Amino acid sequence: MNKIGLPIAVGCFALVPFFAGDFYINLGSQMMIAAIFALSLNLLAGYGGLTTLGHAAFLGLSAYFVAWLTTRLGLSHATAALLSIVGTTICAALFGLIALRASGLGFLMITLALSQVLWGLAYRWVSVTNGDNGMTGVTRPMPFGFSIESASAFYWFALTVTTIAFAMIAIFVTSAFGASLKGTRDQSRRMAALGYNVWLIRWITFIYAGFWAGVAGILYVYYNKYIHPSSLSITSSAEGLLGVIAGGSGTLVGPVVGSILVTFLKNYVSSYIDRWNMLLGFVFMFIVIMMPNGIVPGVRRLARHFKGTHR
Amino acid sequence: MTIQDGSYALELIRLNKAFAGLPVTQDVSMIVRPGERRLLLGPNGAGKTTLFNQITGEIQPKSGQIKLFGRDITKLKPHQRAHLGLSRTYQIITLFPQDTLEHNVALGLLGLMPSRWDLLRPMSRDILVEARRVLGLVGLGDLADWPISDIAYGEKRRVEIAMALAQKPKVLLLDEPLAGLSAAERSTIKKLIAEIPREVSVVMIEHDMDTALDLAETITLLHYGKVIIDGTRDAVIADERAREVYLGH
Predict the structure, then answer these.
(1) Of A134, B100, B116, B153, whose CB is crowded by the most CB atoms within 10 A?
(2) Contact B83 A195 (CB under 8 A)
(3) For the whole model, what pTM was predicted?
(4) A5-310: what CATH class?
């Protein structure tokens, strides 16, 4: 996606509320929240070669922060959002210190374990989190005095945040630092020998990914006005990873396409088919077999093939 | 304090390393003067690459000291050593296969620049221009836009060297730069190595004797992790033990 493609795509998405019903508008909002989450996860799994199964910890943590700070402490939305994002980013920095002692499977297991700790806390620390009942009573903010109570207003709010997230992440991965990050994914030994501090590159990326997962978490709790421990469970992390892999990990647009697909199957098709999980499995298998690199690289390859420019 | 030490580009002092009890480096000492061309010889398993890995910091010696221009670098991380002017190539090609030749060499350049931490802007134009210039030096200027996966093995060997040369190292470690090459490709690479500027010290592991002996000024012969002989090329070739351990094997 280039400098022309992004405004066109955003423009098209912005028109959706004019001809779609509330159900579809809300579906769109959920897709965008999932997309920000998948974009942040893709920084690690796709560009860094660091597959994590605990990324939902940051989404859930920031959502809990907002819920707790606004409903229990009565802080304003702006303060709560700011504290939440700072707290989540600090947590990502700490988790990164622990998880990045390993890479590959070890890294995956540590991220999983750390996220399970937070999930356990959300379940058991009832006095703070209200346990299995979840936290209710979260309200939506009024950014710049505009109400985002209606489905379409929230949709446009989410679209604005998603666009900023997409642009910021695009700048990050195309930067000189992004080139270094991809290098550490492909040849970490060589990168160290060339003068790159591989560990620090990964840690910075981990923190940045945690930050954007936190942003997704804030949108998530505003949208649902409710937060439950399941949002930081392994299922939630795995769904994000599914979106990244299905869409095309290590590509910019892939995670967006993938999370649109996963959200669609989960929230739309599930109302027609009871065993939607099975369908999700079949769709995923189809993608993995037909387009092992994901939908976006797969479609690109097909397009090249038909244009006859395939090398 | 000791100015004397500074006269060596690289100095290894009684290095020891063992893998699971098996000694792979035993009391290895070696000096390399600025601009020297040193050949590291030894049969397979003599511990040559292991020694390289200790010099670059990928593995830590159990005991001993490594000095670069008089500075103790034994405890430094590989990336820190690179910033002090140490560069290497790999016996097994270690490139970025999806990326273009230009990008590969550019990564070598970027690694030593502060702009590698730039989170907002892509690699500068200057880096790419310089990468192409270096590719031109190794005769690959025309292939700069090709991905590594699409070029021939011999060309990849040249990219390995180009990446290291682009960093303008003070000490360059070449790990079997001729491995697996045809006669024609070997002479290309040999010429490349011969043209490396004299201010660079070169330590080379190589089994192709015709080429290696032409390039070398000094030779260190390793056997079972020990230095058997160390001296000028002619002295080592004339040495009876060299024939036994290496040439007669």
Answers:
(1) B116
(2) yes
(3) 0.92
(4) mainly alpha
